[in-house]
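ok so i was messing around last nite and threw this chain in just to see what happens. nothing serious, just curious
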Amino acid sequence: WFTSPAMRGDVGIADALHGVRECDYTTTIAGPYCTMLLADLGAEVIKIETIEGGDMMRSRLPLRNGASTSFGQLNTGKKSLALDLKQPAAVAVVHRLARTADVVVENFRPGVMARFGLDYPKLRETNPAIIYCAISGYGQTGPSAGRPAYAPVIHASSGYDLAQIAHQLEPRRPDYCGIFIADVLSGTYAFGAINAALVQRRATGEGQMIDVSMLESMLSLTLGELQNSQFDVPLPPRPIFGPVATADGYVNLSVASERTFQNMAAAAGRTDWLTDPRFATYQNRRLNWGELMDELEQWSSRLPTAEVQASFDRHGVPSSPYRTVAEAMRDPQLAHRGALAEIRDKGGSFLALNPPFRMSASRAAAVPHVADLGENSREVLAEAGYSAEEIAALAAAGVTTAA
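result:
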């Protein structure tokens, strides 16, 4: 089933979300990641962007001929409609689009869409079946709802950053943030909730409001900490999952079962550990984990990483050398699964990740085209019932960029 790249154009394979129309008012990462997944599964995604500059990600590096691949990977396969939502005529356009839309997604601070007259209660008047998904830092209501938030702030406020530090071997200043987990995670939760709402609508005929909190999304990652913080559960003297030193680097080792412990001992030539009272049982092994790792590194630190990894592989030990993203992208496993898609924009081509799942009866792959700002304005307005003269008048008034 899953050995082909699963690109669009495969004969006999349908789009799981074919016929679903989504109006996309998202910007930056969290919302665009959600709507990217909708587009990857075949939904028609109409990205409504500000007439001046569009989504702020359009200016982010890497840039080639004015085209951002950071923007492109999150917005490939979407149509671009440029509107000035400060003008009543643009708001009227949105309400007309909402009549035939299945889904609306936005990730503004709570209250912004209401000021435009485009919040869920207003759009529901236009289309009672509409599914409206709002992604925000803390949720749509409550004492923190109005606070501004980006992913790094949510990492800190959720406890995630300090939880990670607690697993390190020494106290230290909190880490700088360069990977925006909260954005991708909350976008993924929004994607799942939207699809659940689409299923429910089949039975009820009614749409609904979906309120996604980035704070709660990040808390969902801290499963152990959620429980340990309620009870007095001390951390082991040395974390169980982490790097093992080699002669020229490190290997990540994850020993989570008796079988993997036994395999690790065999890989290192230390089957005596299996009867050593310090390590033979899980509880004692956990208490003496530091000693076990010190003895393991007496073996591993004399060997190059490749040799250590080869021994772990032979004995079925879950492990991996630490790789850069560039190295991971060259992994033959990704090539086998067709994980990377070639995307085109006005700057040329670049690689982006397809959805990390495969479906036997439908495509799950990026549409390989990134629209310029306002590229589809005329097309979308015409489909919404505007005449050529009306579109020209909207463009002349600065409501849209359609020529």
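not much to say yet. The longest strand covers residues 44-50.
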